[in-house]
Specification:
Length: about 290
Amino acid sequence: MVFHSGEELKKPPSPIVFSESNPLHLDFIESAACLRATMFNIKIDKYDKEYLVKVLKGVKVAEFKPKEGVKIATTKEEAEEQAKLTDDEKKVKEILSSLPSSSELKGFKLNEIEFEKDDDTNHHIDFVTAASNLRATNYKIPTANKHVTKGIAGKIIPAMVTTTALITGLTSFEAYKVILGVKTLEDYKNSFVNIALPFVTQSEPVQPTKEKYYDVEWSLWDRFDVDLGRDITLSEFMDYFKKKHKFVVTMLSCGTAVIYSFFTDRKQIEERKKKKLSKLVEEMSKKKRKN
């Protein structure tokens, strides 16, 4: 008997070579062009598909080649490692610097497109059908025609829009209470929703379980803030709790990384106690600290 992990069972995508004679490719180009024309206030006149094919024959799609020095992740581990090294702030600055200035866009108007599945002249369902079928082709999944796509959209859109609006509204009510500084627990509400029934009900949140340590009450919502004004060692951290709060630290973790545990080899414990917490966290979690 052979067992496979989820990673092994994932289907790798296969590339699609563009061809103006392929109806699926032509449908995608046609519907996408019509949507862009609507966005940019370009009038869509009746056009001949033969002319569209003629134009596309003159378009040469360059073969994809990765930039020099760019490594493309082929495994989950490589992707995670690359994500750690990505400088998000630098990318954001590059994107912002590439945007045109407000003076360059003076007088420019862009139309927003609101999805409407029942208007066959707006090319919305045509685009969704073509785009989803191209992706299906990538992964060797059976394609669907326009009518099937419209039926699926008809089930998804009402459920998604109404549920999202309801949850957003209920969450916003609770957020206002937090912002206004409401302290009474009974003023907050948990909401339970099932639109299919339909059923909506609310209840008061339950207080967290309270424990006692000597004369101090605490719950999972409480925390200790430790700030000695400098980067301290693990030994100093443990001594702080022993002297200040009269308890012994038996385990310390950061995320999924165990920084200290009482059952660790004694020699390793002594070595770790001498190290600064910041360096110890980096070492055990294998993640660089962000300054």
